[in-house]
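thought: fold this chain, then report.
action: predict
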Amino acid sequence: VRNGLRLLIFGLFLKVAIADNLAGVVDEFYANPSKYNLLSTWVATFLFTFQVYLDFFGYSLLAQGAALLFGIHLMDNFNKPFLAKSIPEFWHRWHISLSTWFRDYVFIPVGGNKNGPVVLAFAVMLVFFTSGLWHGANITMIYFGLSQGFLYLFDRFIFKNIQIQSVVWERFKQVKTGLFFMITLVFFRSGNIEQAKMVYKQMLGSNLGIENIQVGL
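observation:
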C-alpha cells in the first residue's frame, strides 16, 4: 500500500503539476505558431517533448500505483528513454507496454528480424505506420509514425556502423536521438499538415520577430 501510494502521488505530480502546466504553454504557441520567432518555436517544441513524456510517464505511474493497492504488479512503462543512444533503443525504453504489443502482434508475425533486411524494413515501417494510427486516425499521426520508422531504419542500418570510441561520441548519440524524436513530435502535436509545415518553417528561422512565449506556472 505504501509503495502504491508513492507511485500515485509521484504520477499525479508529474501529470498535473508539470505536464498539464507545460500543456498550457504549448497550447498558446500552437494557437498561432506563425507569430513566434525561431527561439520561441524551439522552446515550445522542447517543452512539448517533456509534456508528452511526463504525461505518459505520469499516468503510467498512476496505473501502476492503483494496481499495486490491489496487489497487482504492472510492468514499468518507461525506462529513462532520453538516455537512449539510438531510435531502436529509444523505443525499447519508451511506452514499453505499447512497443511490446506491436513487437509481439505486428513485428514478429510479419517476419521480424529473422528474414533479412528487406523484411525487417517492411516490418518496422508497418509497426510505426500502425502505431501512428493507434495514436490518432489522421494524417499527422501517420507522418509521425512513418518518420519514426525512417529514423529507426537509419539508426539500424547506417548510424550504428559508425564506431567511435569516445565519451563525447556517446553523449552525442544520446543528444541526437532525443533531438530526432523531439523534431518528429511536431507532427504529433500539429492539428494538420499545414500547421506542421508552419512550425518547421519557424524552426528554420522563417520568422525573426521578437515575440516570446510567456511561461506561467
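thought: worth noting. Residues 38-69 form the longest helix (32 residues).
final: C-alpha cells above.
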